[in-house]
Write a structure and sequence with these properties.
CATH class of the largest domain: Mainly Alpha
Strand order of the largest sheet: 1-2-3
Radius of gyration: 33 Å
Distance between the termini: 111 Å
Shape: elongated
CATH architecture of the largest domain: Orthogonal Bundle
CATH superfamily of the largest domain: Intergrase catalytic core
CATH topology of the largest domain: hpI Integrase, Chain A
Largest sheet: 3 strands, antiparallel
Structural class: mainly alpha
Order of helices and strands: EEEHHHHHHHHHEEEEEHEEHHHH
Number of helices: 14
Strand content: 5-15%
Length: 381
């Protein structure tokens, strides 16, 4: 620690105070010799008190791992979807903590964050994964800024500046109409109890969690639509993925199947002596079915039907691709699927839209009349 007073330039009568504390050098022009020495005395006293911890009222910054873990439990877990919490937790533990977990929060620099993100990308992971990692780091550091542990968040705009390549369109290989009918036939023959569920999946394009959270009160029988307003995952009911409710239309076939299922449930309730139908449509002992259990049954039905392996989410892709290939408006499909923007719908399924009739391009040409009326010719007087 050093605080010095110097006349710069020499014999100019202008005095400067120079300080060198913990490798940080600062200089301040004071002007008057007496004031310069007085300022130096005060600066030296303040630095000494800070060294002794007397003036150190700023809280000590914890290491990033401890701080981020607290952020996950305090802010993410109670306020965000459980899947978001688990995604951030796993990302931090697997890719972030090994690199910067032991560093203090106020020591983290932009270069440290870039190092983590570039290492993730170098492992062959997608830009989407890099963005998730960036968000998982950004969240606790934004909180650190609010608590005045950091002057600014070093993560802001990092991924944009990295300019990582990203695949423009998601490759989707949906089922054809024939494959869907083959699967539903196998389902009815071997797993009849699941038939209404999978018919609903193919006819509405709803997400798995949304299907499992469906309740009888969500159905409007007269309007033939379903109010999608919640999702079920890992034993918890939450809002939809986008946080918005939406209305999904039902086909006649699906309406009749669900009405038949409700009648069956009422009959079973009378036989049990309760007379009370479970609120959840697709349930096991009154509770929503587990996601992994439904996925397991779906795989078994695929094998029974002799079809290629695919994810259960493929029911959603199949729904969208069939509608768009039939010329249905992408805006309608976007609303039915609950996408947050039309861009997502177009990026995923735009190649399923019909290319159109080439003759329609002629509509751009100016349509000129065959003959032109001539102005009336009059003789001059």
């Amino acid at each position: 620690m050093a605080v010095l007073v110097r006349e710069r330039p020499k014999n100019s009568g202008v005095y400067w105070v120079f300080s060198n504390h913990k490798g940080k050098r600062k200089a301040k022009k004071i002007g008057d010799k007496k004031l310069a020495y007085e300022a130096a005395k005060r600066i030296n006293a303040k630095l000494t008190l800070n060294e002794l911890g007397i003036l150190s009222d700023k809280p000590q910054a914890p290491v990033f791992k401890k701080y981020a873990d607290n952020w996950l439990e305090t802010y993410v877990k109670p306020l965000r979807r459980i899947s978001t919490y688990e995604r951030y937790r796993d990302m931090l533990a697997r890719h972030v903590y090994p690199v910067i977990g032991s560093m203090k929060v106020d020591e983290l620099k932009r270069s440290d964050v870039k190092k983590v993100l570039l290492q993730i990308h170098a492992k062959g992971l997608s830009k989407s994964t890099v963005c998730i990692a960036s968000n998982a780091i950004c969240g606790p550091l934004s909180n650190a800024v609010d608590e005045e542990l950091l002057p600014a968040n070093p993560v802001i705009n990092v991924t944009r500046r990295l300019q990582l390549d990203r695949k423009k369109r998601i490759d989707v290989v949906p089922m054809t109409r024939q494959e869907i009918e083959k699967l539903l036939s196998a389902c009815r023959a071997h797993y009849s109890g699941y038939y209404p569920f999978f018919l609903c999946a193919f006819r509405t394009g709803m997400r798995l969690g949304e299907l499992l959270a469906l309740q009888w009160g969500d159905i409007d029988w007269n309007g033939r639509f379903i109010n999608v307003q919640r999702s079920y995952k890992r034993g918890r009911l939450t809002g939809t993925k986008t946080g918005k409710k939406r209305r999904v239309d039902m086909s006649r076939q699906l309406t009749e199947e669900l009405q038949s299922l409700l009648t069956q449930r009422k009959r079973e309730a009378l036989q049990d002596g309760t007379g009370q139908v479970a609120e959840v449509i697709f349930h096991k002992n009154g509770e929503p079915m587990a996601q992994n259990s439904v996925r397991y049954v779906f795989k078994k039905i695929l094998r029974k039907a002799g079809l290629r392996d695919m994810r259960l989410h493929g029911t959603r892709h199949s729904y969208a691709s069939i509608l768009l290939s039939q010329g249905v408006s992408p805006v309608y499909v976007k609303e039915q699927l609950g996408h947050s923007s039309i861009q997502i719908t177009v990026d995923c399924y735009g190649h399923f839209m019909p290319s159109g009739d080439q003759t329609t391009i002629n509509r751009l040409d100016t349509q000129l009349p065959a003959t032109y009326p001539q102005p009336l010719q009059t003789k001059e007087a």
